[in-house]
Design brief:
Elements: H1 13-16, E1 33-36, H2 49-57, E2 62-63, H3 64-71, H4 75-87, E3 91-94, H5 102-118
Antiparallel strand pairs: 1-2, 1-3
Helix pairs in contact: 3-4
Length: 119
């Protein structure tokens, strides 16, 4: 874990989340895309160092799983931090787009079946 202070002391994940074990929102999956809001809202409270690191990472859209990997923190901790940022209006979160290709897949399977039948 890379979450340490200047003296190299380890910061426990529950400290980063203020003791919280669950996010206040259910907006995030591993592939949810997160982007920092520009300009940052002036009314929002001063963010923690971890929040600032997340905001720098999210200058361009990035997935929740990638944020957790870059921060070397458990996804559950990152989701709690992201929930804080979302509630403060500092980030936007885009859920993954569901792609339904059932019709295309069925057509492809029928073509394969027809092709195999001609052999």
């Amino acid at each position: 874990m890379t979450a340490g202070d200047a003296a190299g002391r380890l910061v426990r994940p529950f400290t980063l989340t203020g003791g919280r074990t669950r996010p206040s929102r259910a907006d995030f999956t591993l592939i949810t895309t997160v982007t920092a809001v520009e300009p940052q809202p002036a009314r929002a409270a001063r963010p923690q160092p971890e929040h600032l690191r997340i905001l720098r990472m999210c200058a361009r859209p990035v997935a929740v799983a990638e944020i957790a990997a870059r921060l070397d923190l458990p996804v559950s901790v990152v989701v709690i931090l992201l929930s804080d940022l979302l509630e403060a209006g500092r980030i936007t979160a885009r859920p993954p787009h569901l792609v339904s290709r059932a019709v295309d897949d069925l057509e492809l399977l029928q073509k394969v079946r027809d092709g195999l039948g001609r052999l």
